[in-house]
Structures are given as C-alpha cells and as structure tokens.
Write a structure and sequence with these properties.
The structure is a single chain. The chain is an alpha/beta fold. It has a single domain (about 25-200), classed as Double Stranded RNA Binding Domain, CATH 3.30.160. It is about 30% helix and about 30% strand. Strands 1, 2, 3, 4, 5 and 6 form a 6-stranded mixed β-sheet that branches. A hairpin with a 5-residue loop joins β5 (about 130-145) and β6. α1 packs parallel to α2. It is elongated.
Amino acid sequence: MVLDGFRQPAGACGSGAADGGAAGAREEGEVRQGAVLTLALAALAGCGYHVGGRADLLPSSLRTIAIPAFGNASPRYRLTGQLPAALTREFLTRTRYRVVADPNEADAVLYGTVRSYFSFPTLFDQRTGRASGVQVHVFLDLKLVERETGNVLFERQNYEFRGRYEIAVDQAQYFDESSTALERLSREVARQVVSSILEVF
C-alpha cells in the first residue's frame, strides 16, 4: 500500500462519488468504535497522560482541546470516527495540549466535516482487467475555535487530501484493504492538519 502526499486545495472541490452501500452497516459500527477510541484517548489525556509537547505558536492560554466527532456528507462514515481518533493521537504525541472529551471543558474545540470522498481506479491487472490500484480524494472543512471568546484560531474550507493504495485482484478482499488504507489515510491527514494548525501563527 502506498500513499501519496497531501496538499491544500486551490479552488472548489468536486462532488463525492458513492462507492456503494455494501459495507454501510459495517462502517457505521466502525464509526462507533472510532468514537470509543477517541474517548479513551481523551480519558488518558485527562489523567495527565501526554507526551511532552514540541514548540508551537498557538496562544499560550490554550491548555486543552476537544475534538468532537466529525460531521459527514460523504459515503465514508468510517472517517467521522477515525479522523478525530487520529487527531487526538497526533495532538498528544506532538504538542503540549491535553485532549478532553467534553467540549464544554476545553479551551478550544476543533470542529470538522468530511465534505466528500471519492475514489477511482488508477491501475489495472493485465490478466483480469480488474482494478489493482485506487486513488482517493478526501475534502474536509476544519475550524479550531477558542471556546470562551469564539475566536477562530484556524479555519480551512475544502481542505484536500490525496492518497492511493493497491487492492487485491480478489474482490472479496477489497473492503478489508480499503479499511486498512483509510486508517493510514486518517493518520496522514491528522499529521498534516496538526502541522497546519501549529504553523498558522
């Protein structure tokens, strides 16, 4: 599996193309698992567990951040749980902030919406003619808000991330590999988002 780099968009995004509903019920269950993981990570942070932060330029008054479940307007419901969980891990390992579960207890809240997700084949198996490589595009809306003042500390509309991954010719394995690719994609997105937030000041 190989993932491309990520970049910010220039202009409007395209509309998401549905990938089919075969894995819908399974994805909804994984969203709940992602939400549980986010809460577990936040609970660890609330107990004082976090990795020593690296330098950043966010306001010094900020100590805690909440990352609620993302909104979703795409066919990939799994991302609404995976992305907050990945962002929680990234904030804990790279910054001085604690991540809390309750937005009412946070100094700042990071809101997000998965606007669209679409994928298309880029490689084909010469023997079978089936797709063996897929390109993925994800578009997000992101906003980091200081809770007490309502000041917007960071905001991006149509924030674009690209990734590509290989899939097995055996179609029965496709959804398993897609799930693994989305987990890695979430980690890469989280790294890029946290870097953008820290560098905006």
